[in-house]
Amino acid sequence: MNKFEAMRSFCLVADLQSFSAAANEMGISTTMVSRYVKQLEQQLGCLLLKRNTRRVFLTPAGEQYRAHIKPLLKKLTLVENQMSHLSDTPSGMLSVSTTLELGSQYFAPLIAKYRQAYPQVLLDINLSNNPIDLFDSNVDLAFRVAPVLPSASHIAQSVASSKLSLWASPEYFAINGTPTTIADLAEHRLMFFAHNIRKEQWLFEYQGQRQTIKLPWAWTSNNGRLLNEAAANGQGIIQAPSYSVNQYVKQGDLIELMPEYSIKELSISAVYPHRYQLSNRVSSFVEMAKNYFRDNPLP
Fold first, then answer.
1. What is the H or E stretch that residue 265 is in?
2. Spatial separation of the C-alpha atoms in residues 125 and 96, rounded to whole Å
3. Of 75, 73, 49, which Cα lies nearest the Cα of 63?
4. pLDDT tens for residues 61-119?
5. What is the dihedral of CA 279, 283, 284, 286, to 10 degrees?
6. Which of 1, 45, 270, 281 has its CA 20 to 30 A from that of 129?
7. What is the number of other CB atoms lying within 10 angstroms of the CB of residue 103?
């Protein structure tokens, strides 16, 4: 009996409450899953699962056994993945997370170059502005956009930079006037980008000094594209990376406001847990991103 596969079969049946669903997950027959579970029960000398015509459920012994072995299986799977990372040629699944604005506008050419160089790597690209817990998720690598990354037990490498500035449309300025100081902003319609790191703070830099200021906003969203569109339509003032609003600036729909207060070096960093330090899938994608954005700098 393959003890590892037997334990995995049992846990999947218990989690999915189905022998056939577990078989599909493992890519084997339902008969083989049943055989694994039966062999495990025979070796342990107790019944782990019961089933009727409608469902599968755990016995008390099964509940206790699953509680003990599930963390062990997770650890064994992690060790296997880490060892597979040491092969010479990157292969297997790589899950990458980045923001909606950065990923949708600038990642397609990077992905094409990476796929050409490493066709054996299966990329899973997730675009979301929601915070990602790198220690309790399936994400291997995340690209964070922030002036300063929060301290945590992970590795962060800068791959590109942009500028964080205030933007509004010419029509908005024509109707509402143009603020010239940070204090003036409180008298204007502000639209705030909700961010778990920034909280409700607006970020500025003046004469080399960073400062955070809480300003009243008319409405907020975690979707930068929505805020960009609203600002381009004259609804108010936003603070956004220059790469995010580049197309609107080129079309004349947005104008930079008070550039002397902009953050000139907004860092885009590749962030991953220390457990992936030796992963050639992660390292190859990070290096490819560095080289790509060096040759194709963000606006």
1. strand 263-273
2. 5
3. 49
4. 999 999 989 888 887 777 666 665 555 688 889 999 999 999 999 999 999 999 999 99
5. 140
6. 281
7. 19
